[in-house]
Automatic annotation (TrEMBL):
Gene3D superfamilies: alpha/beta hydrolase (3.40.50.1820). Residues 1-68 are annotated as: Disordered. It comes from Actinomadura harenae. SUPFAM superfamilies: alpha/beta-Hydrolases. It comes from the Bacteria. This is Alpha/beta hydrolase.
Length: 359
């Protein structure tokens, strides 16, 4: 496991090997870049700011870093955005949100961190790469809407990533808590597309205590996804019995009772123009979860397709309009459940105009 401060913020401007920027930026989605007088973050151990003044009496841990931290946890790359919100603080035990990207843009932790940074949430937001096999055929270069999903290799790549992501999460959390100095407590989860399927599988297995989760365009049923691709491609899938069994294991309409039983508050987000996960699929999942007794489940639909980033979605780029909308909803959802305001409401102002009468 390794952790180190991130380089220049690619959301603010693309960088290359010859980029002259030498100061660390704010996290993606934050305010203007800080001046070069910003204190340096140590490169060893947890990236923390050096403090030259005594800590407040109620401080229990060192100050947080001011910019992203990149590292690996259980062998998977991550981008961790620190809690820099100035108008709110964590209100409960959950101080960590883990989010997975998908097989469609955004496809990597870095790309998702710039697409939906959730800057206003006063917790660590850790964007984690999905596990992929070393075999190049294990990755669908054109996403879940391609004919590759109709092949054995395609659905196996999808299923393996989802199952490994859920299986590795306990070890990932151990490393993240050590890297980021976060206490052992329930976590929050978020995911997009295949990453949202990993969230559903984690909830169904109940191997990790989850307080709340948000799922953007979740792949609820690989078999139904394949049927929609078949109609558009004009060809049938060529899955082996093992691939069929894998798809059945990841049919969350069947596992919805266990997902609801995890006890997490759930937000589902769909796209009205999504061909991969149609909005009816998201609505049906919402109704099933509510019927099975999920403590809190809400759904929202936006006028968007499936992707949350411009193709190819592997590098950090400025967010597209759809991502900005989704980021706002995710931020509100997690703030309502994990945060409380730090600035008290202003008292009412009484105005008295000269020469006026109060009679």
């Amino acid at each position: 496991m390794t952790a180190h401060p991130a380089g220049p913020d690619p959301r603010l401007r693309p960088t290359g090997p010859d980029d002259p920027m030498s100061t660390a930026p704010d996290e993606p989605g934050g305010g203007p870049a800080a001046s070069s007088a910003r204190p340096q973050v140590p490169a060893t151990g947890l990236a923390r700011r050096a403090e030259s003044t005594p800590a407040p009496a109620d401080a229990t841990r060192p100050a947080e870093p001011l910019w992203p931290v990149r590292g690996t946890a259980a062998g998977l790359g991550y981008v961790a955005l620190p809690p820099t919100a100035v108008d709110a603080r964590a209100s409960g035990p959950t101080e960590l949100i883990v989010a997975w990207p998908g097989f469609d843009p955004p496809r990597t932790a870095a790309a998702m961190a710039t697409a939906v940074p959730m800057t206003g949430v006063p917790t660590w937001r850790v964007f984690l790469d999905l596990p992929h096999r070393d075999d190049p055929s294990s990755v669908l270069p054109t996403g879940l809407d391609s004919q590759g999903f109709l092949t054995d290799a395609g659905v196996t790549a999808f299923g393996a990533s989802v199952e490994q992501a859920a299986a590795l999460l306990p070890a990932v959390l151990d490393d993240l808590r050590r890297d980021l100095d976060v206490p052992v407590a329930p976590v929050a989860l978020a995911g997009f597309s295949a990453g949202a399927a990993a969230v559903l599988l984690t909830l169904a297995r109940q191997t990790v205590q989850v307080s709340t989760a948000a799922l953007v365009a979740p792949v609820v049923s690989p078999a139904r996804l394949a049927m929609s691709v078949e109609k558009r491609a004009g060809r049938e899938r060529s899955w082996s019995p093992a691939a069929d069994e894998l798809a059945e294991r990841l049919d969350f309409a069947v596992q919805v009772g266990r997902v609801a039983g995890a006890g997490a508050a759930l937000l589902l987000i769909g796209g009205a123009r999504d061909r991969i996960v149609p909005p009816a699929e998201v609505t049906a999942l919402h109704d099933l979860l509510a019927h099975c007794g999920a403590p809190a489940v809400e759904a929202a639909t936006f006028r968007m397709g499936h992707a949350l980033a411009a193709a190819p979605g592997t590098e950090a780029r400025a967010p597209i309009t759809e991502a900005v909308r989704v980021d706002g909803v995710l931020t509100d959802w997690f703030r309502e459940r994990l945060a409380e305001p730090t600035t008290p409401a202003a008292p009412p102002v009484s105005l008295h105009l000269t020469g006026s009468s109060s009679a």
